Amino acid sequence: MNTNKIHIVDTTLRDGSHAVSHSFTADQAVAVSEGLDKAGVEMIEISHGDGIAGSSLNYGFSKQPEMELIKAASGVIKNAKLTVLLLPGIGTIEDLRMAQENGAAAVRVATHVTEADIAIQHISWAKQAGLFTVGFLMMAHMATPEKIVEQAKIFADAGADYINLADSAGYMTPEDVRARIAALKNAVSLPIGFHSHNNLGLSVANSLAAVEEGATYIDATCRGLGAGAGNTQIEVLCAVMERLGYNTGVNSFALMDVAEDIVEPLMQRPQVIRTDSLLLGYAGVYSSFLLHTRRAAEKYGLTPREILVELGRRGMVGGQEDMIVDVAYELSRKGT
Amino acid sequence: MNTNKIHIVDTTLRDGSHAVSHSFTADQAVAVSEGLDKAGVEMIEISHGDGIAGSSLNYGFSKQPEMELIKAASGVIKNAKLTVLLLPGIGTIEDLRMAQENGAAAVRVATHVTEADIAIQHISWAKQAGLFTVGFLMMAHMATPEKIVEQAKIFADAGADYINLADSAGYMTPEDVRARIAALKNAVSLPIGFHSHNNLGLSVANSLAAVEEGATYIDATCRGLGAGAGNTQIEVLCAVMERLGYNTGVNSFALMDVAEDIVEPLMQRPQVIRTDSLLLGYAGVYSSFLLHTRRAAEKYGLTPREILVELGRRGMVGGQEDMIVDVAYELSRKGT
């Protein structure tokens, strides 16, 4: 058993933002952050779903500017590190500087699992600016454990405080997680974190598998709010970890109350596994593909299933959303 | 890897009945059964949620008599075994005879995990009547692997065709499941099955763990419909098992359609993990306690959480619902 302190990272106000169409208000950010902080959560991530400066036509506009949300949340947090997500190419160092001015104390710099090198300057800047800095590898199912170790070392050399692996598509099984976390633990001296999606109904089990292999930072959200089928449900994960005897420092009963009393009322739909998100996990494609896939399916008289499975077969990655229409067109021609 | 044929058992029309207040109609039973049968599901369980003859003031009245549902479903099933659940003490051999006359081809005789002996006569009768007969141990987390082996042998001696273990409270972790299934595989020559609840978000992972240890019959329901936080979501489980290369014989895409097009529209609430059902799994108490607990909590000014955790601490079992009020009364006196 992993007897280290397990640090719980809540990303309701960041990844969860996808599931409410980026509609969080400052009042909501305050209520959620305050509840999480009092429950003992150590890092509270708040940003547009696609990271700071994600508010756009392409990724969806935020209802209220995220800097206002960050500032409001920072006013009520007493112990947790207020954290932002930064995707180089979407957000910039200037955006990060503004987030820090508004109260952010930590940043997670996220890249596709094979593109850590585009984050070197952001991680270096963040460390020098005094931020707690995390290197975050997305779509980790698309790379071997060896490739992941290579990429993690780039983050480590740039100065990251820990390395976070993300199963962004909710594709992995516990064995997939074990192989990747174990490889990182063997090769990198930094703490390791894990971020899961529930598309295959495995997010809690995958998080437990990560911890068993030595991961010490675990992402989760209230009610599992998040892209696709959602993230690991924080109140469930923490209750299980409490019963298993892990030292998380959080009060799982308090988290249950935050989830039920504060987050559930602001949800736009229940966080369940419907066919579309199940297929995202089954095919291993990014959840941002879903909306584009639905549109393309309608346009070309296909099912989203046909398109998603083909995207997975081709190993399409985030940023290639424009190609979904091409794939749909090709599939529709084959069918005639 | 378990290379045996994995038999998928759907219990949407039985355990799922709890989640729709036992309101299934014959038309719904026909639509669900036909869809499951065409998708390749091998056993389709249909009964009141608490087994045949469960319709009552205590367990909730069925909207339409279950024998009518059984008869209607039997008219459309071509390959699957139409299955009923029988809890000795609730249903009788006479009820089972009627179910067989209406088309049931299999029965699962269920007892508390330490009370297999009360099912001997039912199992013997069912075998002699030509039914495919299953011995089903509920609340399996409350007994050690050794005790479970002892109880399974009682079923085996009575003539059961396979032994099914049920994590009725959704309490188990994958390791709990592995220990119990492995012990059964070592000690009993019959096939082993597993039935999971999702109160701790672990039902898919627990089902995979069961199969890895040699279980060959796995229960699940469309959309996870079921008591408490629901059962293993069949379309999710089958998609994962398909990707992992297991031989289930089911078409997981067809199951996704049954779940989304037929079952989802008849659901009364989304099958998510809310605080009450999370606490059932955390405390390890039976889901039928929930309604009684809510009522007792209101009556004595307590939270359901306080009562459920105390019930788990006392090891209360199904049938002791009447004692919930006493426990609540004691707790309320302590608080004064």
UniProtKB/TrEMBL annotation, chains A, B:
Active site location: H18 (proton acceptor)
Binding-site list for Mn(2+): D15, H195, H197
Binding residues for substrate: R14, D15, S168, H195, Y286
Catalytic activity: (S)-4-hydroxy-2-oxopentanoate = acetaldehyde + pyruvate
Biological process, per Gene Ontology: L-leucine biosynthetic process
Keyword Metal-binding on entry: yes
Enzyme Commission number, as recorded: 4.1.3.39
Gene3D superfamilies according to UniProt: 1.10.8.60, Aldolase class I
Keywords: Aromatic hydrocarbons catabolism, Lyase, Manganese, Metal-binding
Pfam families named in the record: DmpG_comm, HMGL-like
MF terms (GO), sorted A to Z: 2-isopropylmalate synthase activity; 4-hydroxy-2-oxovalerate aldolase activity; manganese ion binding
InterPro entries in UniProt: 2-IPM_HCS-like, 4OH_2_O-val_aldolase, Aldolase_TIM, DmpG_comm, DRE_TIM_HOA, PYR_CT
UniProt domain Pyruvate carboxyltransferase: residue ranges: 6-256
Residues with site note (Transition state stabilizer): R14
Keyword Cytoplasm among UniProt keywords: no
Family the UniProt entry places it in: Belongs to the 4-hydroxy-2-oxovalerate aldolase family.
NCBIfam families assigned: 4OH_2_O_val_ald, PRK08195.1
Protein name: 4-hydroxy-2-oxovalerate aldolase
Organism: Breznakiella homolactica
Gene this chain is encoded by: dmpG
